[in-house]
Every structure is written in C-alpha cells, then in structure tokens.
Amino acid sequence: MQTQQQGALWVFAAYVMWGFMPIYWKSLHHVSSGEILVNRIIWAFLLTVLALLLVGQGKKLVSDLKELWTTQKQFWSLCAASFLVTINWFTYIWAVNHDFIVQASLGYYINPLVSVLLGIVFLKESLNRNQKAAFVLAAVGVTILTFHYGVFPWISFVLAFTFALYGLIKKHIKLNATRGLAIETAFTVPIALIAYGWIFSTGDAVIMDTDPLTIVLLVLTGIATALPLVFFAKGVPSIPLYVTGFLQYIAPTMMLIIGVAIYGETFGKFEWLSFAFIWIALLVFTVPEVLRYAKNKRTMMRLQKQESSHQS
Fold it and tell me: Which residues span the membrane (predicted)?
C-alpha cells in the first residue's frame, strides 16, 4: 500500500507531463485533431498491451477484465470514464491547435472547483464558507471572460467537467494503473479504428503521405498519452481529492505560460482580471484545506507518539 506522499509524487509527475503537452500537440499542427485523436487511442492501447505482455501480465489483464465484468457497475463506470477522457483529449488537442491554449488552461484551473461540485451532487458533500466564497469568485472571473469574449468559454467547461468526472470515477475503481489504461482504451479502440478507416477513405489521412518525424510523433502519442495517465491512475486512489485538485494547478500554469510566452496568445487586461478572480478563488479554496490537513496530521502524529510512550 503506497503512502499519500508517494501517491502525490505520481500525480505531480502526471501534471508536469500534461503541462508540456501543448508543445507536443503544436508540433502536429498540420495533422487534423481527429487523426491525432485516433492515433492517440490506437497507439496507447497497442503500446500498453505490448508492455503488459512483455512483463508477463497478460493473464492478469484477462483476469481484471473478467472481474470487472462480474461487477457490472464498475465495468460500465470504466467504460464511461474512457469516453469522458476521449472527449477531453479531443477538445484539448483541438483547442491547442486552434490557438486556444489560454482558454484550455482556464478549464484546468476551474477543474478543482468542478470536482467539489461533483462531490456535492454525487457524494452528498456540503460546502463550507471558504468553498462558497471560492465558487462566487470563480463565477465572477468566468463571467468577465464571457463578456470579454462575447461567447461562453465552452472549451474551458468541457475540459473541466470531463476530467473532473473522469477523476471521480477513477477514484472508486481499484485497478492496476497500466492494466486499467489498457482496458480503458480497449473500449474506444473499435470506434477509433472505424473513424480512421473513414479518414483513409476520404483521402485525408496525413500519416500515409508525410515526413518520418510526423509518423514517429503520431506513434509516440501512445506513450505521451499512457505515461501521465498511468501515473495519475497510480497516484490518485491514495490521496484526497482536494490534494489532486491542488496539484493540478501545475499543469494549467505551465499551459498558460507556454500559450502566452511561446505561442503569443493574447493575455490582456480582461484576461488578467478574470484569471485574478479565479486564482484568488483557488487560494481561498485550497489554502484552508491544506492547513486543515496539516493540522490533522500533526494531531494524529502527536496522539500516536503519546500512545507509544504510554505503551513503553
């Protein structure tokens, strides 16, 4: 059983990888988002299954499938998680390659707040005063951005809700990280193959008429997909949901910096004002939770020390 610290390190590594992803997807800007997505699904499945076979876990993978099938709720929950993360992937790839990296980063900033909202809806949790204040501040920030853009920032909300739901489902499914990814991608591989067949039939498949580097990058989308997802799945079951949300600030911060500093996306006074409200909301939301967790941990350690001294 891994500790919370080990789990946090796995999730931290996943978010750092996701933070660099805009650079990877931008290198494939000449390939359609749909073709990138189907390559991502197919190669993630093939490379993950191959890795499992090489380390002798093929039988365990079959065993996991059989066990999942006997627990229908978990089987279909994982299927739903697979489609949710696929929607998330496509939206993110499309956003990056259509110069919406800043709006994508907004989606991952508000994701922790969406996670809390899902906790209220599905887990019957209640909001404390700080969380209520954080929601109001974040709503103000999103409203400012909506008026500035003239349209609702749908990219941000699709990314936030799909990944928050994915995280919620994954937290309640106890599967080995790598085998879990193989099963997840297995749900969507048939649709990806059909979609790729259609892309080939229309003559729009770039992979058949492109440079070797593009082919390598398309194949490596499998590794780029698998590694952070495996790290995330390996770490998230052993840490509280709010810790996952706190660590997630790493990825959107990196995305925002990359979008503005490297790719020259606009970040004017309205963006500053909107993001300022959201950053303050995240501080109001996160800091009390971290302090409470630290206080509880110190109390628990003190009690354990007292108990051990009494026993001795």
Answer: 7-25, 37-55, 75-94, 100-123, 130-147, 153-169, 181-201, 213-232, 239-263, 275-294
What number of CA atoms fall less than 13 Å from residue 45's CA on the CB side? 18
Residue with tokens 């929950």: 77
Name the token pair of 35: 């073709």
Q: Which residue has the tokens 């076979």?
A: 53
- Tens digits of pLDDT across the chain (312 residues): 567 788 888 989 998 998 999 999 999 999 999 999 999 999 999 999 998 999 888 889 989 888 888 888 888 999 999 999 999 999 999 999 999 999 999 888 888 778 878 877 777 777 788 888 888 888 888 888 888 878 888 999 999 999 889 888 887 787 877 888 889 999 999 999 999 999 999 888 888 888 899 999 999 999 998 888 778 777 877 787 667 767 878 888 899 999 999 999 988 888 899 889 989 988 887 788 777 777 777 787 777 777 766 665
| Secondary structure (3-state) at 187 | helix
C-alpha 86: how far from its chain's center?
Answer: 11
Domain ranges of the chain: 4-111+151-261
Tell me the C-alpha distance between 100 and 110, whole Å: 16
